[in-house]
Amino acid sequence: MARQIGEVILDLRNISLRFGGVKALTDISFNVREHEIRAIIGPNGAGKSSMLNVINGVYHPQEGEILFHGQVRRDMDTHDAAAAGIARTFQNIALFKGMSVLDNLMTGRNLKMRTNFLQHALWWGPAKREELEHRRKVEEVIDFLEIEHIRKTPVGRLPYGLQKRVELGRALAAEPKMLLLDEPMAGMNVEEKQDMCRFILDVNDQFGTTIVLIEHDMGVVMDISDRVVVLDYGKKIGDGEPEEVKNNPEVIAAYLGTQH
Amino acid sequence: MFYRETGQFKTSYGADQQIFPIRQDRIGIVLLLAVAFVGVPALGSEYFFSAILIPFLIFSLAALGLNILTGYAGQLSLGSAAFMAVGAYAAYNFQVRVEGMPVLVSFVLAGLTAAGVGILFGLPSLRIKGFYLAVATLAAQFFIVWCLTKFPYLSNDSSSGVISVPGVSILGFDFDTPRSKYLLVLTLVTLLALAAKNMVRSTTGRAWMAVRDMDVAAEVIGIRLMHTKLLAFAVSSFYCGVAGALYAFCYLGSVEPDGFSLDMSFRILFMIIVGGVGSILGSFLGAAFILLLPIFLDIVLPALSELLHLPFDGATVSHIQLMVFGALIMFFLVVEPHGLARLWQIAKEKLRLWPFPH
Fold first, then answer.
1. Size of interface A-B (CB pairs under 8 A)
2. ipTM of predicted complex
3. Is the CB of B222 less than 8 angstroms away from the CB of A82?
Protein backbone atom coordinates (compact mmCIF):
# COMPACT_ATOMS: atom_id res chain seq x y z
CA MET A 1 0.00 0.00 0.00
CA ALA A 2 1.16 3.47 -0.83
CA ARG A 3 0.22 5.08 2.44
CA GLN A 4 2.84 5.50 5.12
CA ILE A 5 1.81 4.99 8.71
CA GLY A 6 3.13 7.95 10.60
CA GLU A 7 3.68 9.09 14.16
CA VAL A 8 1.28 8.65 17.06
CA ILE A 9 -1.30 11.45 16.78
CA LEU A 10 -3.74 10.31 19.44
CA ASP A 11 -2.57 8.81 22.69
CA LEU A 12 -5.01 7.83 25.41
CA ARG A 13 -3.32 7.41 28.76
CA ASN A 14 -4.87 5.59 31.70
CA ILE A 15 -8.42 6.57 30.87
CA SER A 16 -11.05 5.71 33.49
CA LEU A 17 -14.70 6.62 33.06
CA ARG A 18 -17.45 6.05 35.62
CA PHE A 19 -21.17 6.67 35.56
CA GLY A 20 -22.00 6.86 39.24
CA GLY A 21 -20.91 3.47 40.53
CA VAL A 22 -20.70 1.84 37.12
CA LYS A 23 -17.20 1.59 35.74
CA ALA A 24 -17.45 1.95 31.97
CA LEU A 25 -13.72 2.15 31.31
CA THR A 26 -10.89 1.23 33.65
CA ASP A 27 -7.35 2.42 33.16
CA ILE A 28 -7.24 2.08 29.40
CA SER A 29 -4.23 3.19 27.37
CA PHE A 30 -3.71 2.87 23.67
CA ASN A 31 -2.60 5.04 20.81
CA VAL A 32 -3.48 5.74 17.20
CA ARG A 33 -0.90 6.52 14.55
CA GLU A 34 -1.39 8.86 11.66
CA HIS A 35 -2.98 7.29 8.54
CA GLU A 36 -3.66 3.93 10.18
CA ILE A 37 -6.90 2.02 10.52
CA ARG A 38 -7.33 1.19 14.18
CA ALA A 39 -10.11 -1.15 15.24
CA ILE A 40 -11.69 -1.38 18.68
CA ILE A 41 -13.40 -4.69 19.29
CA GLY A 42 -14.97 -6.44 22.21
CA PRO A 43 -18.19 -8.10 23.35
CA ASN A 44 -21.34 -6.05 23.92
CA GLY A 45 -21.02 -3.64 26.81
CA ALA A 46 -17.25 -3.73 26.70
CA GLY A 47 -17.05 0.07 26.58
CA LYS A 48 -16.19 0.52 22.91
CA SER A 49 -18.68 3.31 22.20
CA SER A 50 -17.75 4.98 25.49
CA MET A 51 -14.18 4.99 24.26
CA LEU A 52 -15.16 6.85 21.08
CA ASN A 53 -17.26 9.24 23.16
CA VAL A 54 -14.21 9.99 25.27
CA ILE A 55 -12.10 10.65 22.18
CA ASN A 56 -14.46 13.26 20.76
CA GLY A 57 -15.51 14.82 24.02
CA VAL A 58 -19.07 13.58 24.51
CA TYR A 59 -17.94 11.90 27.75
CA HIS A 60 -15.37 13.32 30.11
CA PRO A 61 -13.24 10.68 31.83
CA GLN A 62 -12.58 11.04 35.56
CA GLU A 63 -8.98 9.93 35.25
CA GLY A 64 -6.32 9.88 32.60
CA GLU A 65 -5.21 12.25 29.89
CA ILE A 66 -5.50 12.52 26.15
CA LEU A 67 -2.75 13.56 23.81
CA PHE A 68 -3.98 14.77 20.47
CA HIS A 69 -1.73 16.41 17.91
CA GLY A 70 0.97 17.05 20.44
CA GLN A 71 -1.35 18.66 22.96
CA VAL A 72 -2.05 16.94 26.27
CA ARG A 73 -5.55 17.43 27.71
CA ARG A 74 -7.55 16.18 30.67
CA ASP A 75 -10.52 15.61 28.38
CA MET A 76 -11.85 16.71 25.02
CA ASP A 77 -14.66 19.13 24.24
CA THR A 78 -17.00 18.25 21.37
CA HIS A 79 -16.50 21.57 19.63
CA ASP A 80 -12.71 21.51 20.02
CA ALA A 81 -12.59 17.92 18.82
CA ALA A 82 -14.59 18.81 15.71
CA ALA A 83 -12.46 21.89 15.11
CA ALA A 84 -9.30 19.79 15.49
CA GLY A 85 -10.51 17.55 12.68
CA ILE A 86 -12.22 14.63 14.41
CA ALA A 87 -15.44 13.52 12.74
CA ARG A 88 -17.58 10.52 13.61
CA THR A 89 -20.55 8.38 12.80
CA PHE A 90 -22.90 6.80 15.30
CA GLN A 91 -23.99 3.27 16.08
CA ASN A 92 -27.67 4.18 15.74
CA ILE A 93 -27.69 6.50 12.77
CA ALA A 94 -27.77 10.09 13.96
CA LEU A 95 -28.62 11.91 10.75
CA PHE A 96 -30.80 15.01 10.58
CA LYS A 97 -33.92 13.20 9.41
CA GLY A 98 -35.91 16.14 8.14
CA MET A 99 -33.13 17.44 5.93
CA SER A 100 -32.02 16.33 2.48
CA VAL A 101 -28.83 14.37 1.89
CA LEU A 102 -27.25 17.51 0.46
CA ASP A 103 -28.19 19.59 3.52
CA ASN A 104 -26.89 16.89 5.87
CA LEU A 105 -23.55 16.95 4.11
CA MET A 106 -23.48 20.75 4.01
CA THR A 107 -24.12 20.77 7.75
CA GLY A 108 -21.05 18.57 8.12
CA ARG A 109 -19.02 21.52 6.84
CA ASN A 110 -20.51 24.07 9.23
CA LEU A 111 -17.21 24.74 10.99
CA LYS A 112 -15.69 25.87 7.71
CA MET A 113 -18.41 28.48 7.12
CA ARG A 114 -17.35 32.03 7.86
CA THR A 115 -20.44 34.11 7.09
CA ASN A 116 -22.94 35.12 9.77
CA PHE A 117 -26.71 35.00 9.90
CA LEU A 118 -27.18 38.58 8.70
CA GLN A 119 -25.20 37.80 5.58
CA HIS A 120 -27.29 34.66 5.19
CA ALA A 121 -30.48 36.71 5.44
CA LEU A 122 -29.26 38.90 2.58
CA TRP A 123 -27.98 35.89 0.62
CA TRP A 124 -26.49 37.90 -2.21
CA GLY A 125 -22.73 38.37 -1.95
CA PRO A 126 -20.52 36.53 0.53
CA ALA A 127 -23.18 34.09 1.75
CA LYS A 128 -24.02 32.89 -1.74
CA ARG A 129 -20.38 32.66 -2.77
CA GLU A 130 -19.56 30.62 0.30
CA GLU A 131 -22.58 28.38 -0.16
CA LEU A 132 -21.65 27.55 -3.75
CA GLU A 133 -18.01 26.99 -2.91
CA HIS A 134 -18.96 24.48 -0.21
CA ARG A 135 -21.56 22.91 -2.45
CA ARG A 136 -18.74 22.08 -4.85
CA LYS A 137 -16.79 20.37 -2.07
CA VAL A 138 -19.86 18.48 -0.91
CA GLU A 139 -20.54 17.31 -4.45
CA GLU A 140 -17.08 15.73 -4.46
CA VAL A 141 -18.07 13.68 -1.42
CA ILE A 142 -21.40 12.81 -3.04
CA ASP A 143 -19.52 11.67 -6.12
CA PHE A 144 -17.05 9.67 -4.04
CA LEU A 145 -19.81 7.81 -2.19
CA GLU A 146 -21.92 7.35 -5.31
CA ILE A 147 -25.05 8.93 -3.87
CA GLU A 148 -25.75 11.43 -6.66
CA HIS A 149 -29.23 10.09 -7.28
CA ILE A 150 -30.45 10.79 -3.75
CA ARG A 151 -28.87 14.16 -3.06
CA LYS A 152 -32.21 15.94 -2.79
CA THR A 153 -34.03 13.16 -0.89
CA PRO A 154 -34.86 13.69 2.79
CA VAL A 155 -32.70 11.17 4.64
CA GLY A 156 -35.64 9.87 6.66
CA ARG A 157 -36.98 8.27 3.48
CA LEU A 158 -33.78 6.38 2.63
CA PRO A 159 -33.18 2.69 3.35
CA TYR A 160 -30.88 1.81 6.22
CA GLY A 161 -27.79 0.97 4.20
CA LEU A 162 -27.88 4.27 2.33
CA GLN A 163 -28.43 6.20 5.56
CA LYS A 164 -25.24 4.64 6.91
CA ARG A 165 -23.45 5.80 3.78
CA VAL A 166 -24.88 9.31 4.05
CA GLU A 167 -23.72 9.48 7.64
CA LEU A 168 -20.22 8.58 6.51
CA GLY A 169 -20.61 11.32 3.90
CA ARG A 170 -21.56 13.89 6.52
CA ALA A 171 -18.41 13.03 8.46
CA LEU A 172 -16.27 13.12 5.30
CA ALA A 173 -17.69 16.48 4.27
CA ALA A 174 -15.82 18.02 7.19
CA GLU A 175 -12.56 16.81 5.61
CA PRO A 176 -11.50 15.24 8.91
CA LYS A 177 -8.01 14.22 9.89
CA MET A 178 -9.43 11.45 12.01
CA LEU A 179 -12.63 9.54 11.46
CA LEU A 180 -14.37 7.65 14.26
CA LEU A 181 -16.76 5.01 12.95
CA ASP A 182 -19.10 3.34 15.41
CA GLU A 183 -20.18 0.04 13.85
CA PRO A 184 -20.31 1.30 10.26
CA MET A 185 -21.44 -2.11 9.03
CA ALA A 186 -23.96 -3.12 11.66
CA GLY A 187 -27.14 -4.55 10.19
CA MET A 188 -25.89 -4.60 6.61
CA ASN A 189 -25.97 -7.44 4.11
CA VAL A 190 -22.78 -8.80 2.56
CA GLU A 191 -22.97 -6.59 -0.49
CA GLU A 192 -23.50 -3.41 1.54
CA LYS A 193 -20.64 -4.44 3.82
CA GLN A 194 -18.35 -4.85 0.85
CA ASP A 195 -19.29 -1.38 -0.39
CA MET A 196 -18.69 0.13 3.02
CA CYS A 197 -15.32 -1.61 3.36
CA ARG A 198 -14.32 -0.27 -0.01
CA PHE A 199 -15.30 3.26 1.01
CA ILE A 200 -13.40 3.03 4.28
CA LEU A 201 -10.26 1.74 2.56
CA ASP A 202 -10.56 4.38 -0.17
CA VAL A 203 -10.97 7.19 2.34
CA ASN A 204 -7.91 5.97 4.18
CA ASP A 205 -5.93 5.52 1.00
CA GLN A 206 -6.93 8.59 -0.99
CA PHE A 207 -7.26 11.20 1.74
CA GLY A 208 -4.88 9.68 4.25
CA THR A 209 -7.55 9.94 6.92
CA THR A 210 -6.77 8.14 10.16
CA ILE A 211 -9.63 5.82 11.04
CA VAL A 212 -10.73 4.42 14.38
CA LEU A 213 -13.56 1.97 14.01
CA ILE A 214 -15.69 -0.29 16.14
CA GLU A 215 -16.92 -3.36 14.38
CA HIS A 216 -18.35 -6.74 15.29
CA ASP A 217 -17.70 -8.52 12.03
CA MET A 218 -14.36 -10.18 12.77
CA GLY A 219 -13.70 -10.98 9.14
CA VAL A 220 -13.91 -7.31 8.26
CA VAL A 221 -11.85 -6.20 11.25
CA MET A 222 -9.06 -8.65 10.58
CA ASP A 223 -9.01 -7.74 6.89
CA ILE A 224 -8.95 -3.98 6.94
CA SER A 225 -7.38 -2.86 10.19
CA ASP A 226 -3.72 -2.25 10.84
CA ARG A 227 -3.95 -2.67 14.59
CA VAL A 228 -6.69 -3.85 16.90
CA VAL A 229 -7.40 -3.06 20.52
CA VAL A 230 -9.67 -5.44 22.44
CA LEU A 231 -11.83 -4.35 25.35
CA ASP A 232 -13.83 -6.48 27.74
CA TYR A 233 -15.81 -5.21 30.73
CA GLY A 234 -14.16 -1.79 30.33
CA LYS A 235 -10.64 -3.18 30.50
CA LYS A 236 -8.09 -3.59 27.77
CA ILE A 237 -7.29 -7.25 27.21
CA GLY A 238 -5.41 -7.15 23.94
CA ASP A 239 -3.66 -4.77 21.59
CA GLY A 240 -1.66 -5.34 18.45
CA GLU A 241 -1.78 -6.44 14.85
CA PRO A 242 -4.74 -8.59 13.82
CA GLU A 243 -2.74 -11.84 13.79
CA GLU A 244 -1.37 -11.18 17.23
CA VAL A 245 -4.77 -10.38 18.69
CA LYS A 246 -6.39 -13.40 17.09
CA ASN A 247 -4.06 -15.74 18.93
CA ASN A 248 -4.21 -13.93 22.27
CA PRO A 249 -5.67 -16.44 24.77
CA GLU A 250 -7.43 -13.73 26.78
CA VAL A 251 -9.18 -12.47 23.67
CA ILE A 252 -10.27 -15.96 22.70
CA ALA A 253 -11.57 -16.47 26.22
CA ALA A 254 -13.57 -13.24 26.11
CA TYR A 255 -15.19 -14.16 22.81
CA LEU A 256 -15.66 -17.89 23.21
CA GLY A 257 -15.65 -18.34 26.96
CA THR A 258 -12.97 -20.23 28.89
CA GLN A 259 -13.03 -23.90 29.62
CA HIS A 260 -13.32 -24.66 33.27
CA MET B 1 -48.16 18.03 -17.59
CA PHE B 2 -47.55 21.76 -17.63
CA TYR B 3 -45.96 21.96 -14.22
CA ARG B 4 -42.67 20.12 -14.45
CA GLU B 5 -38.97 20.77 -14.77
CA THR B 6 -38.50 18.86 -18.03
CA GLY B 7 -36.13 20.68 -20.30
CA GLN B 8 -34.93 23.05 -17.57
CA PHE B 9 -31.35 21.98 -17.17
CA LYS B 10 -29.23 23.33 -14.36
CA THR B 11 -25.69 23.99 -15.44
CA SER B 12 -24.39 25.59 -12.26
CA TYR B 13 -24.84 25.05 -8.54
CA GLY B 14 -26.06 28.64 -8.39
CA ALA B 15 -28.95 27.84 -10.70
CA ASP B 16 -29.69 24.69 -8.70
CA GLN B 17 -29.84 26.58 -5.42
CA GLN B 18 -32.34 29.26 -6.35
CA ILE B 19 -35.33 29.67 -4.07
CA PHE B 20 -37.63 28.49 -6.84
CA PRO B 21 -35.70 26.12 -9.08
CA ILE B 22 -38.70 25.38 -11.33
CA ARG B 23 -39.58 28.06 -13.87
CA GLN B 24 -43.33 27.70 -13.38
CA ASP B 25 -42.87 28.48 -9.69
CA ARG B 26 -40.93 31.61 -10.51
CA ILE B 27 -43.67 32.80 -12.87
CA GLY B 28 -46.21 31.98 -10.18
CA ILE B 29 -44.51 33.99 -7.47
CA VAL B 30 -44.00 36.98 -9.75
CA LEU B 31 -47.71 36.89 -10.63
CA LEU B 32 -48.66 36.57 -6.97
CA LEU B 33 -46.52 39.56 -6.01
CA ALA B 34 -47.87 41.56 -8.93
CA VAL B 35 -51.42 40.86 -7.80
CA ALA B 36 -50.57 41.66 -4.18
CA PHE B 37 -48.72 44.89 -4.95
CA VAL B 38 -50.69 46.20 -7.94
CA GLY B 39 -53.90 44.28 -8.50
CA VAL B 40 -55.27 44.19 -4.97
CA PRO B 41 -54.60 47.86 -4.12
CA ALA B 42 -56.38 48.86 -7.33
CA LEU B 43 -59.46 46.77 -6.66
CA GLY B 44 -59.78 46.11 -2.93
CA SER B 45 -62.22 47.92 -0.68
CA GLU B 46 -61.29 49.65 2.55
CA TYR B 47 -62.91 46.92 4.66
CA PHE B 48 -60.97 44.31 2.74
CA PHE B 49 -57.66 45.98 3.60
CA SER B 50 -58.24 46.89 7.21
CA ALA B 51 -60.21 43.84 8.36
CA ILE B 52 -58.77 41.05 6.28
CA LEU B 53 -55.50 41.64 4.46
CA ILE B 54 -53.60 43.67 7.04
CA PRO B 55 -54.28 41.30 9.97
CA PHE B 56 -53.58 38.34 7.68
CA LEU B 57 -50.16 39.71 6.77
CA ILE B 58 -49.31 40.67 10.34
CA PHE B 59 -50.25 37.28 11.73
CA SER B 60 -48.37 35.60 8.89
CA LEU B 61 -45.30 37.46 10.05
CA ALA B 62 -45.83 36.40 13.67
CA ALA B 63 -46.42 32.81 12.55
CA LEU B 64 -43.26 33.01 10.47
CA GLY B 65 -41.39 34.11 13.59
CA LEU B 66 -42.76 31.22 15.62
CA ASN B 67 -42.07 28.84 12.75
CA ILE B 68 -38.40 29.80 12.78
CA LEU B 69 -38.22 28.92 16.46
CA THR B 70 -40.53 25.92 16.62
CA GLY B 71 -40.56 24.61 13.08
CA TYR B 72 -36.91 25.04 12.19
CA ALA B 73 -35.06 25.10 15.49
CA GLY B 74 -37.46 22.73 17.26
CA GLN B 75 -37.98 24.85 20.38
CA LEU B 76 -41.63 24.91 21.41
CA SER B 77 -42.81 28.34 22.52
CA LEU B 78 -46.06 29.68 23.92
CA GLY B 79 -44.88 33.25 24.23
CA SER B 80 -45.32 34.63 20.69
CA ALA B 81 -48.05 37.10 21.66
CA ALA B 82 -45.90 38.41 24.50
CA PHE B 83 -43.02 39.06 22.11
CA MET B 84 -45.47 40.86 19.86
CA ALA B 85 -46.47 42.97 22.84
CA VAL B 86 -42.83 43.80 23.50
CA GLY B 87 -42.53 44.92 19.88
CA ALA B 88 -45.69 47.02 19.99
CA TYR B 89 -44.79 48.78 23.24
CA ALA B 90 -41.14 49.23 22.29
CA ALA B 91 -42.06 50.84 18.97
CA TYR B 92 -44.55 53.07 20.78
CA ASN B 93 -41.99 54.17 23.35
CA PHE B 94 -39.31 54.88 20.77
CA GLN B 95 -41.81 56.95 18.81
CA VAL B 96 -43.16 58.90 21.77
CA ARG B 97 -39.95 59.43 23.70
CA VAL B 98 -37.39 60.05 21.00
CA GLU B 99 -37.94 63.24 19.06
CA GLY B 100 -38.02 62.78 15.30
CA MET B 101 -37.52 59.02 15.39
CA PRO B 102 -38.30 57.60 11.93
CA VAL B 103 -41.07 55.03 12.09
CA LEU B 104 -39.16 52.34 10.25
CA VAL B 105 -36.20 52.72 12.60
CA SER B 106 -38.51 52.36 15.58
CA PHE B 107 -39.93 49.18 14.02
CA VAL B 108 -36.42 47.77 13.71
CA LEU B 109 -35.59 48.82 17.27
CA ALA B 110 -38.84 47.22 18.41
CA GLY B 111 -37.76 44.00 16.74
CA LEU B 112 -34.35 44.21 18.39
CA THR B 113 -35.90 44.86 21.80
CA ALA B 114 -38.12 41.82 21.35
CA ALA B 115 -35.05 39.85 20.25
CA GLY B 116 -33.28 40.81 23.47
CA VAL B 117 -36.26 39.76 25.57
CA GLY B 118 -36.51 36.59 23.49
CA ILE B 119 -32.90 35.67 24.24
CA LEU B 120 -33.58 36.18 27.94
CA PHE B 121 -36.58 33.87 27.94
CA GLY B 122 -34.75 31.47 25.63
CA LEU B 123 -32.10 30.76 28.25
CA PRO B 124 -34.09 27.89 29.83
CA SER B 125 -33.96 26.11 26.43
CA LEU B 126 -30.32 25.34 27.13
CA ARG B 127 -31.41 22.95 29.87
CA ILE B 128 -34.93 21.84 29.07
CA LYS B 129 -36.75 20.62 25.98
CA GLY B 130 -40.18 20.04 24.50
CA PHE B 131 -43.23 20.51 26.66
CA TYR B 132 -41.16 21.61 29.62
CA LEU B 133 -39.71 24.43 27.55
CA ALA B 134 -43.23 25.36 26.44
CA VAL B 135 -44.16 25.78 30.08
CA ALA B 136 -41.06 27.91 30.64
CA THR B 137 -42.04 30.19 27.76
CA LEU B 138 -45.47 30.54 29.37
CA ALA B 139 -43.59 32.50 32.03
CA ALA B 140 -42.67 35.02 29.31
CA GLN B 141 -46.29 35.27 28.28
CA PHE B 142 -47.59 36.09 31.75
CA PHE B 143 -44.61 38.08 32.99
CA ILE B 144 -44.46 40.45 30.02
CA VAL B 145 -48.19 41.18 30.01
CA TRP B 146 -48.02 41.75 33.78
CA CYS B 147 -45.04 44.10 33.36
CA LEU B 148 -46.81 46.17 30.73
CA THR B 149 -49.86 46.55 32.98
CA LYS B 150 -47.91 47.10 36.17
CA PHE B 151 -45.39 49.74 35.09
CA PRO B 152 -47.11 52.89 33.78
CA TYR B 153 -43.79 54.13 32.38
CA LEU B 154 -43.99 51.52 29.62
CA SER B 155 -47.33 52.85 28.41
CA ASN B 156 -46.42 56.49 28.91
CA ASP B 157 -48.56 56.70 32.07
CA SER B 158 -51.81 55.89 30.36
CA SER B 159 -54.52 54.25 32.43
CA SER B 160 -54.55 50.40 32.45
CA GLY B 161 -51.67 50.29 29.95
CA VAL B 162 -53.67 51.19 26.86
CA ILE B 163 -51.55 52.93 24.24
CA SER B 164 -52.74 54.90 21.22
CA VAL B 165 -50.03 55.05 18.63
CA PRO B 166 -49.19 58.13 16.60
CA GLY B 167 -49.75 58.10 12.84
CA VAL B 168 -47.29 56.43 10.53
CA SER B 169 -45.33 58.79 8.32
CA ILE B 170 -42.26 57.94 6.28
CA LEU B 171 -40.23 60.61 4.48
CA GLY B 172 -43.15 63.01 4.64
CA PHE B 173 -45.64 60.53 3.24
CA ASP B 174 -48.53 59.79 5.58
CA PHE B 175 -49.69 56.23 5.72
CA ASP B 176 -53.17 57.12 6.85
CA THR B 177 -55.42 55.13 4.52
CA PRO B 178 -55.93 51.37 4.85
CA ARG B 179 -54.58 50.97 1.31
CA SER B 180 -51.27 52.68 2.03
CA LYS B 181 -50.93 50.81 5.33
CA TYR B 182 -51.55 47.57 3.50
CA LEU B 183 -48.76 48.38 1.04
CA LEU B 184 -46.38 49.23 3.87
CA VAL B 185 -47.15 46.00 5.73
CA LEU B 186 -46.96 43.97 2.54
CA THR B 187 -43.53 45.39 1.69
CA LEU B 188 -42.13 44.66 5.14
CA VAL B 189 -43.62 41.17 5.30
CA THR B 190 -42.31 40.33 1.82
CA LEU B 191 -38.80 41.46 2.69
CA LEU B 192 -38.78 39.65 6.02
CA ALA B 193 -40.16 36.47 4.46
CA LEU B 194 -37.40 36.59 1.86
CA ALA B 195 -34.79 37.09 4.59
CA ALA B 196 -36.25 34.14 6.52
CA LYS B 197 -36.14 31.94 3.45
CA ASN B 198 -32.53 32.91 2.87
CA MET B 199 -31.60 32.14 6.45
CA VAL B 200 -33.23 28.73 6.48
CA ARG B 201 -31.56 27.65 3.26
CA SER B 202 -28.05 28.52 4.44
CA THR B 203 -25.76 27.57 7.29
CA THR B 204 -27.90 29.32 9.91
CA GLY B 205 -31.00 27.35 8.99
CA ARG B 206 -29.15 24.08 8.68
CA ALA B 207 -27.73 24.57 12.17
CA TRP B 208 -31.28 25.18 13.48
CA MET B 209 -32.64 22.07 11.80
CA ALA B 210 -29.66 20.02 12.94
CA VAL B 211 -30.35 20.99 16.54
CA ARG B 212 -34.02 20.18 16.01
CA ASP B 213 -33.43 16.76 14.44
CA MET B 214 -30.51 15.40 16.49
CA ASP B 215 -28.83 17.69 18.96
CA VAL B 216 -26.07 15.26 20.02
CA ALA B 217 -24.94 14.77 16.43
CA ALA B 218 -25.12 18.53 15.86
CA GLU B 219 -22.84 19.11 18.81
CA VAL B 220 -20.35 16.50 17.62
CA ILE B 221 -20.21 18.19 14.22
CA GLY B 222 -19.17 21.38 15.97
CA ILE B 223 -22.45 23.29 16.14
CA ARG B 224 -22.66 25.27 19.37
CA LEU B 225 -26.05 24.46 20.86
CA MET B 226 -26.29 27.55 23.03
CA HIS B 227 -25.44 29.94 20.24
CA THR B 228 -27.78 28.23 17.77
CA LYS B 229 -30.78 28.05 20.11
CA LEU B 230 -30.41 31.61 21.33
CA LEU B 231 -30.04 32.87 17.78
CA ALA B 232 -33.29 31.11 16.91
CA PHE B 233 -34.99 32.77 19.88
CA ALA B 234 -33.57 36.16 18.88
CA VAL B 235 -34.54 35.97 15.21
CA SER B 236 -37.95 34.52 16.03
CA SER B 237 -38.66 37.23 18.59
CA PHE B 238 -37.45 39.88 16.17
CA TYR B 239 -40.09 38.75 13.68
CA CYS B 240 -42.77 38.62 16.37
CA GLY B 241 -41.67 42.03 17.63
CA VAL B 242 -41.96 43.65 14.22
CA ALA B 243 -45.32 41.93 13.79
CA GLY B 244 -46.41 43.40 17.12
CA ALA B 245 -45.30 46.89 16.12
CA LEU B 246 -47.24 46.59 12.85
CA TYR B 247 -50.21 45.23 14.80
CA ALA B 248 -50.30 48.40 16.87
CA PHE B 249 -49.29 50.94 14.20
CA CYS B 250 -50.93 49.63 11.05
CA TYR B 251 -53.84 47.52 12.27
CA LEU B 252 -55.47 48.51 15.56
CA GLY B 253 -54.00 51.91 16.30
CA SER B 254 -54.54 51.42 20.00
CA VAL B 255 -53.65 48.32 21.98
CA GLU B 256 -53.66 47.13 25.56
CA PRO B 257 -51.45 44.50 27.23
CA ASP B 258 -54.35 42.09 27.72
CA GLY B 259 -54.87 42.07 23.97
CA PHE B 260 -51.65 40.06 23.66
CA SER B 261 -53.04 37.17 25.64
CA LEU B 262 -52.18 33.51 25.85
CA ASP B 263 -55.13 32.97 23.55
CA MET B 264 -53.31 34.88 20.83
CA SER B 265 -50.12 32.85 21.39
CA PHE B 266 -52.16 29.70 20.92
CA ARG B 267 -53.71 31.04 17.75
CA ILE B 268 -50.25 31.69 16.31
CA LEU B 269 -49.19 28.20 17.35
CA PHE B 270 -52.27 26.71 15.65
CA MET B 271 -51.41 28.68 12.52
CA ILE B 272 -48.08 26.95 12.14
CA ILE B 273 -49.49 23.55 13.09
CA VAL B 274 -52.29 23.79 10.54
CA GLY B 275 -50.13 25.57 7.97
CA GLY B 276 -47.02 23.47 8.24
CA VAL B 277 -44.31 23.26 10.87
CA GLY B 278 -40.94 24.09 9.34
CA SER B 279 -42.24 25.81 6.23
CA ILE B 280 -42.21 29.48 5.26
CA LEU B 281 -45.22 29.03 2.99
CA GLY B 282 -46.99 27.16 5.78
CA SER B 283 -46.89 30.25 8.00
CA PHE B 284 -48.89 32.16 5.42
CA LEU B 285 -51.30 29.32 4.68
CA GLY B 286 -51.88 28.73 8.38
CA ALA B 287 -52.51 32.40 9.09
CA ALA B 288 -54.95 32.50 6.19
CA PHE B 289 -56.75 29.41 7.45
CA ILE B 290 -57.07 30.45 11.09
CA LEU B 291 -57.96 34.09 10.35
CA LEU B 292 -59.95 33.94 7.16
CA LEU B 293 -61.97 30.79 7.64
CA PRO B 294 -64.07 32.25 10.51
CA ILE B 295 -64.74 35.35 8.42
CA PHE B 296 -65.69 33.18 5.48
CA LEU B 297 -68.01 31.04 7.62
CA ASP B 298 -69.46 34.21 9.11
CA ILE B 299 -70.60 35.25 5.67
CA VAL B 300 -71.54 31.88 4.26
CA LEU B 301 -73.40 30.22 7.15
CA PRO B 302 -76.13 32.86 7.74
CA ALA B 303 -76.68 33.07 4.00
CA LEU B 304 -76.91 29.31 3.82
CA SER B 305 -79.39 29.03 6.69
CA GLU B 306 -81.52 31.71 5.09
CA LEU B 307 -81.41 30.00 1.74
CA LEU B 308 -82.49 26.67 3.18
CA HIS B 309 -85.06 28.34 5.51
CA LEU B 310 -83.47 26.76 8.57
CA PRO B 311 -84.88 27.99 11.87
CA PHE B 312 -81.55 29.14 13.33
CA ASP B 313 -81.08 32.43 15.15
CA GLY B 314 -77.82 34.37 15.15
CA ALA B 315 -76.46 32.74 18.32
CA THR B 316 -76.93 29.24 16.98
CA VAL B 317 -75.23 30.18 13.74
CA SER B 318 -72.18 31.43 15.60
CA HIS B 319 -72.08 28.17 17.58
CA ILE B 320 -72.29 26.18 14.37
CA GLN B 321 -69.54 28.35 12.98
CA LEU B 322 -67.21 27.35 15.82
CA MET B 323 -68.11 23.69 15.37
CA VAL B 324 -67.45 23.78 11.64
CA PHE B 325 -64.17 25.59 12.25
CA GLY B 326 -63.04 22.98 14.76
CA ALA B 327 -64.12 20.12 12.54
CA LEU B 328 -62.19 21.58 9.59
CA ILE B 329 -59.03 21.90 11.67
CA MET B 330 -59.33 18.26 12.70
CA PHE B 331 -60.10 17.23 9.14
CA PHE B 332 -56.98 18.88 7.77
CA LEU B 333 -54.78 17.52 10.54
CA VAL B 334 -56.04 13.98 9.95
CA VAL B 335 -55.65 14.25 6.18
CA GLU B 336 -52.17 15.72 6.43
CA PRO B 337 -50.50 16.05 9.82
CA HIS B 338 -47.67 18.01 8.25
CA GLY B 339 -49.99 20.84 7.39
CA LEU B 340 -51.33 22.70 4.41
CA ALA B 341 -47.85 23.41 3.05
CA ARG B 342 -47.28 19.66 2.72
CA LEU B 343 -50.64 19.28 0.94
CA TRP B 344 -49.53 21.95 -1.49
CA GLN B 345 -46.24 20.13 -2.04
CA ILE B 346 -48.05 16.84 -2.68
CA ALA B 347 -50.38 18.63 -5.08
CA LYS B 348 -47.36 19.95 -6.98
CA GLU B 349 -45.80 16.50 -7.16
CA LYS B 350 -49.07 15.11 -8.51
CA LEU B 351 -49.35 17.98 -10.95
CA ARG B 352 -46.01 17.08 -12.48
CA LEU B 353 -47.51 13.87 -13.82
CA TRP B 354 -51.05 15.01 -14.46
CA PRO B 355 -53.01 13.93 -16.48
CA PHE B 356 -51.03 10.70 -16.77
CA PRO B 357 -51.05 8.19 -13.94
CA HIS B 358 -47.29 7.54 -14.02
1. 101
2. 0.92
3. yes
